[in-house]
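G.,

No rush on this.
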Amino acid sequence: MDGYSGAYIMFVLIESVACASGAVIIAEKKGYKGAALAGWCFVGLLFNLLGILIVLIVPTKAEGYIQQGKMKVCPFCKEAVLVDAILCKHCGSKLDATEAK
């Protein structure tokens, strides 16, 4: 066989699948779902270890919403809640409607 051996090709395929799986697992833990997970799977397959580093660097979905002003952090449990929330869905604490951080 000219060029690459079968063992090398198999190694690259296994590495790509492992990196895609790792990227999906990390993205899922960061709050991404559905089509976004398929996108992260593609990033893992295409960029291998670099794809995993990209997923680690990208902010969580909640952090993105906080930066956009769609969510705020509960001052009691430190979980993300909607800006308009008057009760925290995580700890049940009453939230001040004026504090949008």
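When you get to it, here's the other one too:
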Amino acid sequence: MANFIVGSVFAYTAGLIYYKEKTFKNAIKGLIIGVLAMTVAISFANYYVMIPFYSKAYGLPLEKK
């Protein structure tokens, strides 16, 4: 699930930037911004979705003792 989220965010962002004007400069810009967007998206997905999901699935507490 996390891999799908990351791949989708990266491909959409990079593709959107490159689609507007198909130049090598925009391709590089799209890749860089795609990596940054991917990092932000997976950080939020991990914190709010993935970690609580696995914590509940394996019965592990999220709080420190």
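The radius of gyration is 16 Å. Residues 2-58 form one domain.

Enjoy the weekend,
O.
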